[in-house]
Design brief:
Blueprint: E1 3-12, E2 15-16, E3 23-27, E4 30-40, E5 46-59, H1 62-84, E6 92-98, E7 107-109, E8 124-125, H2 128-140, H3 145-159, H4 166-188
Parallel strand pairs: 2-8
Antiparallel strand pairs: 1-5, 1-6, 3-4, 4-5, 6-7
Length: 195
Amino acid sequence: MASLFAVRVRAYSAAHFEYSESITLPWGDATAKLQSEYTGGTDGRAYAVTIHCEIHGVADSLDDAQRRLTPVLGNTLSVVALAANASVADPLVLAVHGLDLTEPQPFLGYQTPQGWDWFPPGRRLIDAEATHALIASLILNQDSGLLRQAIESYLQSRAHWTPEQRLLAGAWEFRPLTTTAVLADLTREGVLSVA
């Protein structure tokens, strides 16, 4: 029997939402919320080092919830990385649990590094409104498979953007650049609408 479950993840990010900002997105039969986690540094100030995401959705079991809902958050973080032009690491699952309080619910929890272990914090801010609009448009556009693959390749290029791995980063950049060129040509020819 299907029940409502929650999956919570965190991912190290080089860009963050303002302290009080968050994004809430409907995703099919689920709803996801993203916001930055601010953690205290050794100087007593709060720094954003990870993005926390939580999704509530219907699943048949705890395992089904983790298998089906966790990738949705990973895919959403790929688009956040694109919108912020910053690297966002693969998410680590924190907890998966049932939300129906009328009966005991299963719970699965994982240990991840403490916030201060993720330093240095990123300094780039994410434009929450523009990021929300980009993610919402991808959710509504069912024919965005090629674009989603390009976004994932872009995320991989950002993850390898270090002096030692720039050649690999360039290889990952090839797909998003060629996909964008093809989409621009299709839009110019009137085959594809951007509205």
